[in-house]
């Protein structure tokens, strides 16, 4: 016969509640779903017309960082704005190099 430890059952119940109520960190986290559109939807829409994968990736990353800037860090978005700027610089450099070669 098994003896049921009520303390253990309570701990397991709390653990299950924590898993069920835990904010989603991978699929649709708050910092990507705070507005009308999920960030990935905006990225897909904006980058679908880029025929250069690298350029699309740079623009997509800039959108990602811009959309989450005020929500993710304690520095009021400065870190993510700098990251967005860096990816836009990568995109601009890529286009400028392409223009020189063609």
Principal-axis shape: flat
Helix/strand-derived category reads: mainly alpha
Unreliable residue runs: none
Q: What letter string, H or E per element, gives the SSE order?
A: HHHH
Quaternary structure state of the chains depicted: single chain
Rg: 22 Å
Number of strands: 0
Overall average pLDDT: 79
Describe the protein's architecture and organization:
The protein has a domain at 37-102. It is 68% helix and 0% strand. The radius of gyration is 22 Å and the shape is flat. By secondary structure, it is mostly helical. The protein has helices at 6-21, 39-47, 53-72, 78-101.
Features:
single chain; mainly alpha; 4 helices; 68% helix
Secondary structure elements and their pairing?
Layout: H1 6-21, H2 39-47, H3 53-72, H4 78-101
Summarize the structure.
The chain has 102 residues and is an all-alpha fold. The chain is built from four helices and no strands. The protein has helices spanning 6-21, 39-47, 53-72, 78-101.
